[in-house]
Amino acid sequence: GAVVSQHPSWVICKSGTSVKIECRSLDFQATTMFWYRQFPKQSLMLMATSNEGSKATYEQGVEKDKFLINHASLTLSTLTVTSAHPEDSSFYICSAEDRAKNTGELFFGEGSRLTVL
Amino acid sequence: AQSVTQLDSHVSVSEGTPVLLRCNYSSSYSPSLFWYVQHPNKGLQLLLKYTSAATLVKGINGFEAEFKKSETSFHLTKPSAHMSDAAEYFCVVSRGMNTGFQKLVFGTGTRLLVSP
């Protein structure tokens, strides 16, 4: 149980295009999901907190118009990188909290590697 | 502000020998500390957590960690490495009081290599 799946696991796109990454909780409902970004050989950095049915909360320094987050259902959050540029190339990871268990424990997806040419 | 430092980017051990992955933290107040493991192409999995209860914390797969306030350390250990332990390990501290698991600050990770 408590599986979080991300899609796609990797994507290559041209500069200027937009890319959508999905994060799904497969066997539980997630009121809250989190999006992280990881540069090579660096830490995971929290980008934003996604709450079902409301606007995402972005961390300081993260452009909300560039990284659009939508959490329209209790099992799905999406991250859209708009007008992508090479500096947006990174590994994006999501995590989710199991609403029913209410332990605060987070379950992580496998990550999505974005390469912008 | 909270931060964690993982002192080794890579650790190599032989199967059957002890594992030690080092982590030092910095926190303005009593932190919650965690170790996560990430196997290739898999999500991060919680190994163990410290939340101000017992200082010696036992986790899954035979791992344990000891919270030492005087040394600001939370090193991860295992008596005997197994080939399946080869993975990336992250030391993590919670950010902000009463945030539980949510506002996490990650270390840079330590890659554990296990040779036969």
Q: Could you explain how this protein is built, in words?
A:
The complex is a heterodimer of chains A (117) and B (116). Chain A contains no helices and eleven strands. In chain A, strands 2, 4, 5, 6, 9, 10 and 11 form a seven-stranded mixed β-sheet that branches. Chain A has a four-stranded antiparallel β-sheet with strand order 1-3-8-7, with no helix packed on it. Chain A is mostly beta strands and 117 residues long. The radius of gyration of chain A is 13 Å and the shape is globular. Chain B is mainly beta. Chain B contains no helices and twelve strands. The model of chain B has no long low-confidence stretch (mean pLDDT 89). Chains A and B meet through strand 4, strand 5, strand 9 and strand 10 of A and strand 6 and strand 11 of B.
Report the portion of residues of chain A in β strands.
Answer: over 45%
Order of helices and strands of chain A: EEEEEEEEEEE
Largest sheet of chain B: 6 strands, mixed
Mean pLDDT of chain B: 89
Radius of gyration of chain B: 13 Å
Radius of gyration of chain A: 13 Å
The unreliable regions of chain A are: none
Shape of chain A: globular
Brief rundown of the structure:
The complex is a heterodimer of chains A (117) and B (116). By secondary structure, chain A is mainly beta.
